[in-house]
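User: Reviewer 2 asked us to show a designed sequence for the structure in our supplementary figure. I'm pasting the structure tokens here. Could you produce the per-position amino acids so we can include them in the response letter?
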């Protein structure tokens, strides 16, 4: 019965006019081969959604007889659930037990049915070691390599396994997170989109976007567009210009300064450096690290956000965080592949940049260099 029919039934029974919504359904352990994406911004309840699946499995495992046949395909039983966390994400919930499926506001203890993997090959090993498990929750799936989308599709079709993937699909730039996220969408059978309130203090609009910012004292400093794509860290508020914070923001309050600069200036300078003409990029990085008001980055943001009818000072706050030149180098090297390792080392030495910061960000993005 669809919602229109339901509404008509309630009206006939004497109820007042009201909005009728579909009720939340318990997880379907019967249907084989599903690849379920649970998507939404940080704080929207993706992991909590999968924790409900874990709790449902405890109820379903009490069933016997025909119920067992309905949830089984050959050796696997989809009532058996295993949680896989990304090895990159270990630091998110340091205060919880090692076997916890943790989310904001609570956790579920999973005992021996929880593990971690750094890539699709380690997930494949876990699958082989647990042949009776029929439902796999793979947290933050977009952090894995592209191969994982096809591994899950093959296992789902071949053995009837169900995969549930709570993950970001959009990054802080409001773009498809990476190629893995794109392939997950292509291979999914079900998508559950979740939203959250915009976390701006003056707003209650529903939002799908994750916002990255830095807190310095009482000042909100939005992440520049070319901020490193992946930054590994804990899920707690930090007052540190080197370590980001995240929240959910709507269109109006999702600030993302520097996108035009990235494509008008930074990337073309990187392309010149790739052709061995490093002088223009060196000059811009020197300005950014030494006297940012003389940089083309400052001019770009000032013209766009201050020399206008409705100035927006919070966008300019993005220039107050440290290590902006290091972030630009990380973007050009780790994401755009425009700089060589030798060029990165040259810029660090020539400009006296923060090698430790840059080392961490390159490692986070799987392009480690030993900068000394």
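Assistant: Here is a per-position design you can include in the supplement:
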């Amino acid at each position: 019965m669809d919602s229109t029919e339901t509404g008509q039934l309630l009206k006939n029974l004497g109820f007042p006019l009201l909005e009728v919504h579909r009720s939340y359904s318990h997880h379907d352990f019967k249907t084989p081969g599903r690849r379920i994406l649970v998507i939404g911004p940080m704080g929207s309840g993706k992991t909590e959604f999968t924790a409900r699946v874990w709790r449902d499995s405890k109820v379903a495992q009490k069933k016997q007889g025909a119920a067992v046949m309905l949830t089984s395909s050959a050796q696997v039983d989809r009532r058996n659930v295993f949680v896989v966390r990304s090895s990159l994400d270990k630091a998110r919930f340091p205060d919880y037990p090692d076997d916890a499926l943790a989310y904001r506001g609570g956790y579920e203890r999973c005992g021996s049915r929880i593990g971690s993997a750094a890539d699709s090959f380690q997930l494949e090993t876990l699958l082989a070691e647990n042949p009776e498990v029929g439902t796999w929750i793979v947290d933050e799936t977009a952090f894995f390599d592209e191969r994982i989308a096809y591994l899950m599709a093959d296992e789902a079709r071949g053995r009837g396994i169900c995969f549930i993937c709570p993950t970001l699909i959009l990054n802080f730039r409001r773009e498809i997170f990476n190629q893995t996220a794109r392939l997950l969408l292509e291979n999914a059978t079900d998508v559950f989109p979740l939203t959250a309130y915009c976390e701006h203090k003056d707003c209650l609009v529903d939002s799908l976007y994750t916002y990255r910012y830095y807190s310095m004292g009482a000042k909100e400093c939005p992440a520049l567009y070319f901020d490193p794509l992946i930054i590994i860290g804990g899920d707690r508020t930090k007052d540190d210009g080197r370590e980001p914070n995240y929240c959910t923001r709507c269109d109006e309050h999702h600030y993302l300064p520097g996108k035009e600069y990235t494509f008008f200036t930074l990337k073309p300078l990187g392309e010149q450096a790739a052709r061995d003409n490093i002088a223009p990029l060196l000059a811009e990085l020197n300005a950014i690290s030494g006297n940012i008001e003389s940089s083309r980055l400052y001019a770009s943001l000032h013209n766009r956000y201050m020399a206008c009818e409705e100035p927006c000072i919070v966008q300019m706050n993005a220039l107050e965080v440290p290590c902006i030149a290091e972030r630009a180098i990380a973007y050009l090297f780790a994401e755009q592949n425009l700089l060589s390792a030798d060029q990165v080392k040259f810029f660090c030495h020539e400009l006296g940049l923060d090698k430790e910061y840059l080392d961490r960000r390159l490692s986070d993005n799987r392009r480690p260099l030993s900068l000394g």
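For the response letter, you might also mention the following. The mean pLDDT is 90. Residues 197-249 form one domain.
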